[in-house]
Design goal:
- Belongs to the otopetrin family.
- It is a multi-pass membrane protein.
- Pfam families: Otopetrin.
- It is found in: Cell membrane.
- This is OTOP3 protein.
- Helix content is 76%, strand content 1%.
- The termini are far apart.
- It folds into two domains: 232 residues, no CATH class; 229 residues, no CATH class.
- It is globular.
- The longest helix has 42 residues.
- It has a two-stranded antiparallel ribbon.
- With 575 residues, it is mainly alpha-helical.
């Protein structure tokens, strides 16, 4: 018995020192255990490698599609005879049909499979992002309706592709908006590679649509400005250097009818919303692409979800509302004067003066908010968050549009005549705009990385919410209305007085900056573009060079203002 015990224990403890005459089953068992241990220990690593390989392959797919489309669009601009706008539309229509097929397959197939969506990213697809997708998507649909109507009226000089392309665009916008409204938080766990490729193909298609919109906007504004110069010189015909100018002004002139003018003006007015829609869709789709195959543990889920409440702010809304009202007045006066053949110099002075007053206030508020963040004792949120990482990248990247244009303006103005009144105003505006973009980015990024504030008097807040819910459920008579309004006012004052001075200041600053960024988004979106009207940079850099600079930076600047509003609202809520 003892001998048998020794012979059975020997293979387990001294298997390496055994001779070749050892039983083969003992060494085989030892090898299988070692292989099983090695295999199980690398499962997580292999999943990570497979995820990186899938992201790399889908990224290469998107890169090739973007390069192909960019080559088509560039060829259309520089060699309009070989590659026409209709050729670009056909390529984009093929891409949109492929994206539609994948989106429909995802909605009807992938997302409905068992265990397809086990996790949902609570940070992805906030309500303001999804609302922006619906808002700008609706304007883009209306834009394509106007384009179809305008092309139908001028069917004798327009190709049928100009009617088919907007029709496909409407279907694509509606399907994509539905998809992004219902599935932005999905962390899909099946068909990883196919889903990544579909998302990247859709991102590439939206980027190409944005690039085409920017180039078409360039052509449209170039025609407008050249015609204005022609009127100023009292010339009989427009310059023939631009290939699209002759087509738009001679053979395809809008007839003197009300419906044609409505389609034309509506198309011009709604054009910027299409660029915004494409950029927003790209940001949401990128977060979904990062979340493919992602596993969210329980400690990543935030149980505290602050809600937006208009409490604790008084001076921020007042100052912001004043800035919005004054900005609307300046915008209306600018639009009235800018529609004439010769823009008034006083209107440009008024426009830049408004910004020179507003930008320092925004910069000072952002600097004070950053200092308050440094004085706070709230911990930094160091958890992995693809949505927040994308927000930071978009803020930094979109700010380059306005910063780049400002530096080009500074060089042009300093090299010409900076002592002139209008030139000095534009120079001051450019410097202040750079400083404001930098300070606001620091304030927003620092606020996004802070943990939400947890009130110590949580029981009182819960009791107050329960009382408010009970009040909302019962009916209020006319006699009780005055008393309830008085109670609501006292409750608002009570909640404002119980906030710490740091939270008060952060909320006031955030709300003020939200309103300021809204008016700074509205003015360039709806047609206030003094960079096209002052003529200073255009005469310094040349017509085509300055238009290329502006049409790259202006859409990014508009997107930056809109994206800053979302980031500032997040800072306001977490404060």
């Amino acid at each position: 018995m003892s001998g048998n015990k020794v012979s059975r224990q020997k293979p387990c403890h001294h298997c390496k020192s055994r001779s070749a005459s050892a039983p083969p089953d003992t060494s085989t068992i030892h090898y299988e255990k070692f292989w099983l241990y090695r295999h199980c220990s690398s499962v997580q690593q292999r999943d990570r490698q497979a995820q990186k390989a899938g992201q790399l392959f889908s990224g290469l797919l998107a890169m090739n599609v973007v390069f192909l489309g960019s080559a088509f669009i560039s060829s259309m601009i520089f060699n309009h005879v070989a590659i026409t706008l209709a050729d670009v539309w056909i390529l984009l229509s093929i891409l949109k049909v492929l994206c539609l097929c994948w989106i429909i397959y995802y909605l009807l197939g992938t997302s409905r499979q068992p265990h397809a969506v086990l996790y949902r990213d609570s940070h992805a697809g906030p309500i303001w992002i999804r609302g922006s997708v619906l808002l700008f998507g609706s304007f883009s649909v209306l834009l394509n309706v106007f384009q179809i109507g305008y092309s139908t009226i001028l069917i004798q000089c327009k190709s049928r592709v100009e009617i088919v392309f907007p029709s496909i665009e409407i279907i694509f916008i509606c399907t994509q908006a539905f998809f992004l409204w219902h599935h932005p938080k999905d962390c899909i766990q099946v068909q990883h590679n196919f889903t990544r490729c579909g998302l990247m193909l859709t991102i590439a298609t939206n980027l190409l649509l944005w690039l085409l919109a920017v180039t078409n906007d360039t052509i449209h504004r170039e025609i407008e400005s050249q015609l204005r110069e022609v009127e100023q010189r009292f010339a009989g015909k427009a310059p023939s250097s631009h290939p699209y100018l002759c087509n738009e002004t001679t053979s395809c002139t809008c007839p003197n009818t009300t419906i044609c003018k409505v389609f034309q003006k509506g198309y011009i007015l709604l054009y910027p919303f299409n660029t915004e829609y494409c950029l927003i869709c790209c940001s949401v789709l990128y977060v979904m692409w990062k979340n493919v195959g992602r596993h969210i543990s329980h400690h990543h889920v935030t149980h505290i979800k602050p809600k937006f409440k208009l409490q604790g702010v008084v001076f921020g809304p007042l100052l912001g509302a004043a800035a919005v009202i004054v900005g609307i007045c300046v915008f209306i006066m600018y639009q009235i004067q800018a529609t004439g053949s010769t823009p008034d110099r006083q209107v440009l002075v008024m426009y830049y003066s408004y910004y020179i007053v507003l930008l320092p206030l925004m910069s000072v508020g952002a600097v004070i908010g950053t200092i308050i963040h440094a004085l706070e004792k709230r911990e930094l949120d160091t958890l992995k968050n693809p949505t927040r990482s994308l927000d930071v990248i978009l803020l930094m990247g979109a700010a380059l549009g306005q910063i780049g244009m400002s530096y080009f303006s500074i060089v042009a103005l300093v090299a010409t005549d900076p002592r002139d009144l209008l030139n000095s105003l534009i120079l001051s505006y450019s410097v202040l705009l750079i400083f404001q973009n930098i300070t606001q980015n620091v304030f927003i990024i620092d606020g996004l990385h802070r943990q939400p504030f947890i009130s110590p008097n949580k029981e009182e807040e819960i009791k107050e919410e329960q009382n408010n819910e009970a009040y909302n459920q019962r009916r209020v008579s006319i006699l009780e209305l005055g008393q309830e309004i008085r109670k609501a006012s006292l409750s608002y004052i009570h909640s404002y007085s119980h906030l710490t001075w740091k939270r008060k200041a952060l909320r006031e600053i955030s709300f003020f900056l939200v309103l300021c960024n809204i008016i700074m988004w509205v003015m360039p979106t709806f047609g206030a573009h003094p960079v096209f009207e002052n003529g200073l940079e255009k005469s310094f850099y040349g017509y085509s060079t300055w238009f290329a600079i502006v049409n790259f930076g202006l859409p990014l600047g508009v997107f930056y203002r809109m994206h800053s509003v979302g980031g500032l609202l997040e800072v306001y809520i977490t404060a």
